[in-house]
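Per reviewer request, we include the raw input and output of the structure prediction for the construct analysed in the revised manuscript.
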Amino acid sequence: MVEWVRLHGIRLIVVITVGVIIYLISQYTIPRFLKHTVSTRMKGKPRAEIEKRTNTLSRVLRNTIGILIGVVVLFTILAEIGVNIGPALASLGVIGIAVGLGAQSLIKGYINGLFILMENQFGIGDVVKIGDIKGLVEEVNLRRTILRDIDGAVHYIPNGEIAIVSNYTKEYSRVNLNITVSYETDLDRVITVINRVCSKLSKEKAWQGKIIKAPQVLRIDNFGDSGIEIKILGDTTPLAQWEIMGELRKRLKKEFDKQSIEIPYPHMKVYFAGGRFEK
């Protein structure tokens, strides 16, 4: 026993130590290497976009390399203690073929996940819509994507089931807001008021860092049942569009009240004719 420990114990310690060192080095160097590489390839892109891309790739690569190192160390230890790993490797090959034939959807998921990462369709921190589910991407790897919706529910989506993805925070986001005014309103005056409020908001220190292109009236968008809809568009940094739209609604409501501009709401008018009323 002492002889075995003397012959094999040191080798086992060396194998485990080397494995741990390689793992720690990889966990330290991969994020820095990816940050430099992604920054070079995405030169001119927003910093937030570069950071999201780096974090996504870094997490996937670190997990994958960690698993590979663990497998190599395990088989090296088994070989060192006298376990014949030849049959085990052969068995793994046979099992791999069987799994490949019986789990085509799983393989499809891994391939789809690979393309998602390679094409940078979305990453950690993006807000996306996959099918009928919309939420913040908390994790993405080769097998599945995890979204958290606005209610806090977490959705696990296999990458093999992802056909169409809508990314709401790719490089920049957009204010897309419709405001309804009554038919009796002077539209030129309303447009002037809206553009003034939007311009003032975009110049304020608290908001100018989040606004890329100041929101402004794009067009008269629709003749609705109770009023005329006016469309407002503007570009923002990723994830800032909902906060800015909320602030715009609040400010426009206050300004419309000051300017006596009516925002219509569902109501019923009763007309009297010849002593009777008509609806």
